[in-house]
Amino acid sequence: MMSKRRLHPVAILSGVGKELKNMIVPLLVIIAAGSRNRFSWRDFIVPLAAVVYTVVMGVLSWIRFTYAWDEDRLLVEEGVFVRKRRSIPLERIHGMSVTEGVWQRMAGVVQVHIEAAGHVLGEAEVMLRAISREEARQLQRCVEQAKRKAETIDHPASNANRCPPPALFTLSMKEVWIVSLTSGGTLGVVVALGAFLSQLVDFIPYEALVRDIQSTWNGHSRWFLGGFVFVVLFAAYGVAIVQNMVRYASFAVRKQEDTIVITRGWLERKSVSIPVARVQGVVIHENWLRRLFGYASVSLIHAGGGLDGGEAGDVVLCPLIKKNRVASIMQTCLSEYDPTVAFHPLPKRAKSRYMLRPLCWLVIPAVLAAYVERPWGVMAFLLLPFGAWIGACRFHLAGWALSPGQLALRSGLFRQTTTYVLKRHVQSFQSSATWWQKRKRLTTISVSVMPLGTRARVVDVDEANAVVMSRWLEGKRKK
Q: Mind telling me which residue stretches traverse the membrane in this protein (predicted)?
């Protein structure tokens, strides 16, 4: 009989704090809309009731939430008004993510995300908001033992005092700083800021504010607005740098039997465990700045939810690594993948199509600029050769590679992406061609793996090569 346990009381603060953080902007809008520039105590009735309801529901949810496990299964019971009971076999748990947030660290506990088969992508099957570190380690050991038992593999009698394996990959503070400088998180900060300001449009007169600026600066408002935009972008870039430094501090990758363990974080420490069997592919990203200095980043396509807090199915294995080290790390963590295969280039007849694609986006703006800003607008036509050169570079970088058990696709320029997938993990292979492509015997190929929607593609591959890849996949199905 499993003894039922409750979460640490800090789980109440964690859950209620998260809900209240999401309610701040709506509650401010409600207060501002109801006051009509004259605040009274009645304007705070609805927000106060919402806060009280959130706190009460948080306490009741904590009281009604219980969990327990034994050598075979994990049992979770939750629900305030409707009681829900879930029983998950331990061998069906595909991934675990252990996080130490600010509240958890103050109380000496951790937060555990557990992913199992049959759940909605992007959502954790079970989330234990606050359990002790020892309980988290015990649960991980039970999951490992249940998997070994299911696979009928002998295992040591006790793993309690086993030392953690040495780190295969770590990031120094210098590399964390480089990751933060070269990551593209600025746009996300600007979008979040814009979304927040758009919520205040009802009681902040933006149009009147712009008119006042134009009248005050007497024709120099363009320079003022331009300087303001520059300051906002620079500040957003600084915020993105700090976010990435906090996220990737103390980054380490370890291989523990058939599980890849990734730990990272400064204020919020996180540990992600990914079984090798759940890895559906490997993606190498190279933006133009990192490629200039010989760096890249490596991600894993994980058949499940977003264990690392990112998109579903994407887990960062190496946020920054020298390209000459990628092959050794991949072969150490995932021995079935071969990143040393030679890529086949695209046919030469596809080069003109790659050069013409950027021109389709540049011709109309160049003509408009030449007409509106005469005579200096004609200088916009100088962008056309630059666009053709970009298309030629994309053509030379694109390619594909095929081996008996692996398919690799490469595309992109400013953000070059190389995807490696094993034959048994390919969910679908698609070859499509437009009328213009058919005239030059070209086609676009795309490969999908789990989770659904994870796809890699290359444009303007030779039709004969696409047939070879299709037969390669059909060979797996016949077998």
A: 20-38, 44-63, 176-197, 223-246, 354-372, 378-402
Distances (CA, A) of 69 to 73, 141, 418, 466: 6, 12, 41, 50
**What do you get for the CA distance between the two ends of the chain, in Å?**
46
Q: Are 458 and 433 in contact (CB under 8 A)?
A: no
* φ, ψ (nearest 5 deg) of residue 77: -125, 130
Nearest CA among 267, 260, 220 for reference residue 246 = 267
Exposure string of 215-254, with b = 16+ CB inside 10 Å and e = fewer, is eeeeeebeeeeeeeeeeeeeebbebbbeebbebbbebbbb
**Coil, helix or strand at residue 367:** helix
Question: How many residues in the chain?
Answer: 479
**What would the pLDDT profile of 353-389 be if each residue is shown by its tens digit?**
999 999 888 888 888 888 887 788 888 888 899 999 9
Residues 6+ apart with CB under 8 A from 339: 282, 284, 326, 327, 330, 331, 408, 420
**CA geometry: angle at 349 spanning 345 and 352, to 5°?**
105
Cis peptide bond upstream of 375, omega within 30: yes
| C-alpha to C-alpha distance for 224 and 217, rounded to whole angstroms | 8
- Fill in the DSSP letter of residue 334: -
Q: What is the 3-state secondary structure (H, E, C) of 91-127?
A: HHEEEEEEEECHHHHHHCEEEEEEEECCCCCCCCCEE
pLDDT, one tens digit per residue, over 106-146 is 888 888 888 776 544 444 578 888 898 888 888 888 887 88
* pLDDT tens-digit series, residues 380-428: 888 899 999 999 999 999 999 999 899 999 999 888 999 999 998 898 8
pTM of structure: 0.72
Measured distance CA(447)–CA(427) in Å, rounded = 8
Residues 158 and 144 sit within 8 Å (Cβ to Cβ): no
> Who wins on pLDDT, 195 or 382?
382
Residue 221 CA to residue 401 CA, distance in Å, equals 54
CA distance 218 to 238: 32
Closest by Cα among 37, 21, 24 to 202: 37
- Cα-flanking dihedrals φ and ψ of residue 53, to 5°? -60, -40
Measure the CA–CA gap between 411 and 418, rounded to whole angstroms: 7
Chain centroid to Cα 142, Å, comes to: 29
